[in-house]
Design a protein that fits this description.
This protein has about 250 residues and is α/β, with parallel strands linked by helices. It has a single domain, classed as NAD(P)-binding Rossmann-like Domain (Rossmann fold), CATH 3.40.50. It contains 9 helices and 7 strands, in the order βαβαβαβαβααβαααβ. α7 crosses α8. The longest helix is centred in the middle third of the chain and has 29 residues.
Length: about 250
């Protein structure tokens, strides 16, 4: 399938590892030039070096998306280097606090998931509107479409999905699509599920049997493949969607 992504410019946050890095690699494999950012400069440059092996340009920009000035600098440097931003993938996320989160836990989780996404969208959307084309993909979670996970994370990811839906209606007249991807339990080296499997392999085997009809954890590539499709011209009539990548793990009817 021809996705018509060659030469497009994609900005991906949280791209030094995990889902963000997999999406960056998937887009590069289709010929996209990239700007990638994350807090850890060393890991970010390692990711950039690997992705450059796919014969695309990669701009690596260490930054913290919870700092407004950092996000502004990333967007401005990307525009200075490439002249445009066609695709934005907001991948950064996480949670603070357990069963009884403090006010600060709430502030930190909302800032990392919702405000960072809103901030980056706000800065990139004028560029896409002027171009009359754009793709925004926000990484949420199945624990945003339905109850589950840490309470702060669940609420923040639900807000990301809501933000994506609202923006999709506003941006549709400009040829810009806005969608969210909702991964289930994704296994990759260094990730949270990998740590749990290492600590309790039998318990995790039971978890998979009881909770994932597909019978296994998901992979990074399975999330990245959806992101690449949503970034393409082939997905031009998909907007405002929150799409699960979970092997049947979630229970919501909608």
């Amino acid at each position: 399938m021809e996705l018509s992504l060659k030469g497009k410019v994609a900005l991906i946050t949280g791209a030094s590892r995990g889902i963000g890095r997999a999406i960056a690699t998937g887009l590069a494999d289709e010929g996209c030039n990239l700007a990638i950012c994350a807090r850890g400069a060393e890991a970010l440059e390692e990711a950039a070096a690997d992705i450059r092996g796919l014969n695309v340009q990669v701009l690596a920009l260490p930054s913290d998306v919870t700092v407004a000035e950092d996000v502004e600098a990333v967007v401005q440097e990307t525009l200075r280097y490439y002249g445009t931003i066609d695709i934005l993938v907001n991948n950064v996320g996480g949670s603070k606090g357990g069963q009884d989160p403090s006010d600060q836990d709430w502030y930190d989780t909302v800032d990392l998931n919702l405000l960072a996404t809103a901030r980056t969208c706000r800065l990139v959307l004028p560029v896409m509107r002027n171009a009359g084309w754009g793709r925004i993909i926000n990484i949420a979670s199945i624990w945003g479409r339905e109850s589950g996970g840490a309470i702060t994370y669940n609420a923040a990811k639900a807000s990301v999905i809501s933000l994506s839906k609202a923006l999709s209606a506003q941006m549709a007249p400009y040829g810009i699509t806005v969608n969210s991807i909702c991964p289930g339990s994704i296994l990759f080296p260094g990730g949270g599920w990998a740590r749990r499997v290492e600590q309790d392999p039998e318990g995790m085997a039971r978890f998979v049997k009881d909770n994932i009809p597909g019978g296994r954890f998901g992979t990074l590539e399975e999330v990245a493949s959806l992101a690449v499709f949503l970034a393409s011209e082939r997905a031009s009539w998909i907007t405002g969607a929150a799409i699960n990548v979970d092997g049947g793990q979630s229970k919501s009817n909608i």
